[in-house]
């Protein structure tokens, strides 16, 4: 057999082996996640009266799954670009941080928006140990690119109810001490998001648009996408670059399985500002866990510009926040 043909055959076998390993790892992860979800649901039911930091008692019995949305957690990339091309250094986005390590994985994302406050998806309080830790009157440590900080309070949006059409999946996280580093990201206050290109960030499971989520290597990735619908929330579709009628961006991507709470960033006046918070993927008729994040997936972000009054009222400061 020619050397080149032998090399390609070995390379093919290696790729097949990797795929099988990814499938096995993903299956094991899903089993662990399901077990954790059931345990946390049980814990929430048994500690309903111990969570004064939540906005309403009705929120405490929430399931971890979203009825109309699939909880999302990482960046899925174009099949013709490659996952490594999307990898970025966390120090370039110091205001963005993950909430929890689960083994080698990094679960849920939050963004610093004030010297003492960050914002994330409300369901991340159950996806991680954050909610349970605060319920026990303990502080929750997080790793930022600039060092470790402690969260001592979480305020959930009063309309957070995943069973309701009016659900607002947002939570504000208070740091124990105010700090000016990292510099907080400004909030997008205009209502012209439609058609704008946003940058999406996340750690965790990655994969290709042709297959959906595949594996998790714990690396931070950045993708771009275009906002195609704006109402109470922002919606983005992952376009297939092979489609003649689709305008796929060079580094287009979408969120997949560890990225809930992650930011959608719009460039305004030369600066990146926070326009949305990742909350999930629409469960269409052909949705499946195995192909989460594949081409055609529609992901949903809470629209920051609609919640500025609530954010200001909780923080007790007026925009623009003094960094």
In short:
The chain has 323 residues and is an alpha+beta fold.
Characteristics of this structure?
single chain; 323 residues; alpha+beta; Thrombin, subunit H; six-stranded antiparallel beta sheet; globular; disordered N terminus
Give your account of this protein's structure.
This protein has 323 residues and is of the alpha+beta class. Helices cover 19% and strands 33% of the residues. The strands form 3 sheets. Strands 9-12-13-17-16-15 form a 6-stranded antiparallel beta barrel. It has a 6-stranded antiparallel β-sheet with strand order 3-4-5-8-7-6. It has a 4-stranded mixed β-sheet with strand order 11-10-2-14. The radius of gyration is 20 Å and the shape is globular.
Please write out the topology.
Layout: H1 3-46, E1 69-70, E2 74-77, E3 96-102, E4 105-114, E5 117-120, H2 124-127, H3 130-135, E6 140-144, E7 147-156, E8 171-175, E9 197-202, E10 205-208, E11 212-216, E12 221-230, E13 233-237, E14 253-256, E15 263-268, E16 271-282, E17 298-303, H4 308-315
Parallel strand pairs: 2-10
Antiparallel strand pairs: 1-16, 2-14, 3-4, 4-5, 5-8, 6-7, 7-8, 9-12, 9-15, 10-11, 12-13, 13-17, 15-16, 16-17
CATH 2nd-level architecture of the largest domain:
Beta Barrel
CATH topology descriptor of the largest domain:
Thrombin, subunit H
- Tell me the strand percentage band: 25-35%
Share of helix, binned:
10-25%
* Number of individual domains: 3
The CATH superfamily of the largest domain turns out to be Trypsin-like serine proteases
